[in-house]
Amino acid sequence: MKDDIIMSTYDYKNRLVQLDNKTFKKHICIGHPEMKDNYYSIKQCTETPDFVYLSNQNENREVFYAKVETSTYPKLYTKVIIDYSDPKKGTIMSSWFEKTITGVRKEGLIYVKPKK
């Protein structure tokens, strides 16, 4: 049986991105318990990232970063890993907070949020 989708939204390129219940509860909330109360931060980072990089571990994945004012840790980046193996939609694989940008290709910056 397919896992229930608990988030369905669009990224900065207007691509469908989804998060399933199993990934959120059994991976994100267990492996990164600080994210349990930061569902909105994951959504916000997916929709309006500050930066997006190519992953240094998987060529089908992009690494999103955003500082979200309403998160538990607004001075840290919310980091969201999205897999785009399916060209029709992205799948959120993980999320956690980070002080700095890590786990990305050295020359892999593919998006910077425009200044207002």
- SSE order: EEHHEEEEE
Looking across the biggest beta sheet, what order are the strands in?
Answer: 1-2-6-5-4-3-7
What portion of the residues fall into strands of 2 or more residues?
35-45%
**Which radius of gyration do the C-alpha atoms yield?**
13 Å
Poorly predicted segments = none
Helices and strands: which structural class? Answer: alpha+beta
Counting DSSP E segments of at least 2 residues, the number of strands comes to 7
Mean pLDDT score, rounded? 94
Biggest sheet overview: 7 strands, mixed
> Quick one: overall form?
globular
Whole-number tally of structural domains: 1
End-to-end C-alpha gap? 44 Å
Give helix % range: 10-25%
Q: How many separate helices?
A: 2
Overview of the structural elements:
The chain is of the alpha+beta class and 116 residues long. It has one domain (5-112). Helix content is 17%, strand content 41%. The protein contains two helices and seven strands. It has helices at 21-31, 39-47; strands at 5-10, 16-20, 51-55, 61-66, 77-83, 90-98, 104-112. A seven-stranded mixed sheet has the order 1-2-6-5-4-3-7. A hairpin with a 5-residue loop joins β3 and β4. The longest helix has 11 residues, at 21-31. It is globular. It starts with a strand and ends with a strand.
Task: Give the tags.
116 residues; single chain; 7-stranded mixed β-sheet; 17% helix; alpha+beta
Topology record:
Elements: E1 5-10, E2 16-20, H1 21-31, H2 39-47, E3 51-55, E4 61-66, E5 77-83, E6 90-98, E7 104-112
Parallel strand pairs: 2-6
Antiparallel strand pairs: 1-2, 3-4, 3-7, 4-5, 5-6
